[in-house]
Amino acid sequence: MSDDQIENEERPCLHCLIVELIDNFFAEYPVSNEEPDTMDTDEVTTALAKTMAELTCSRDEAGRQTMIEQLMREINSVPEAIRQKVINNGGGHANHTMFWEIMGPHGGGDPTGPLGDAIKAAFGDFAGFKAKIKEAATGRFGSGWAWLVHSDGKLLINSTANQDSPYMNGQTPILGVDVWEHAYYLRYQNKRPDYVDAWWKVVNWNAVGQRYSHALAGK
Ligand SMILES: [Fe+2]
């Protein structure tokens, strides 16, 4: 048995680890949703950051991402007093990790394989799919993301504000385009539609296809 196999077998369930560490955190730094004015926000935020560092520092990148995705899925169990900060940072991490993963210098073209077939089945053809993503991206007022998500066995297109994550809605993001101004303003100024049109040239469809396969497998 290899060292990797031993390590994997001894590694605790990530979800259990998250629950345990967050439970420990709130045992040490209790937060009352009913009395938010009595909370020392700086102390809680600093302590939460320390706990999140403890959560993530000793893990590999894939493990970190899995934990953050799980935290987003269970965002409603995070006390309301600090929930928005957890969304801003955790959602921002999850969204951008996906974003860097699905782009590359030799991207573009049309999706093939199971993902290509599923897109055609759901949206008619690839041109129709791109038009709907563009509609979601340009229709999002202010900052946010346009998404292709897997939800209850279906592919859907929608958008979220700021750093909200589809995981918060029980959906798995397959592809997402960042429509914060920082993603396009230097080159496209206020022309968000032009940025979205150009963005397709850098999409790594192999990576998007892998995300779809993992979603189908319930990973
Ligand atoms: Fe961004």
Overview of this protein structure:
- By secondary structure, this protein is mainly alpha-helical.
- It has two domains: 99 residues, no CATH class; 104 residues, 3-Layer(bab) Sandwich (minor pseudopilin epsh fold), CATH 3.55.40.
- It is built from ten helices and three strands.
- Strands 2-1-3 form a three-stranded antiparallel sheet, sandwiched between helices.
- A hairpin with a 2-residue loop joins strand 1 and strand 2.
- Helix 6 packs across helix 10.
- The two termini are 25 Å apart.
- The relative contact order is 0.11.
- The N terminus is likely disordered.
- Bound molecules: fe (ii) ion.
What are its keywords?
single chain, 219 residues, mainly alpha, minor pseudopilin epsh fold, 2 domains, 3-stranded antiparallel beta sheet, 10 helices, 57% helix, 11% strand, disordered N terminus, binds fe (ii) ion
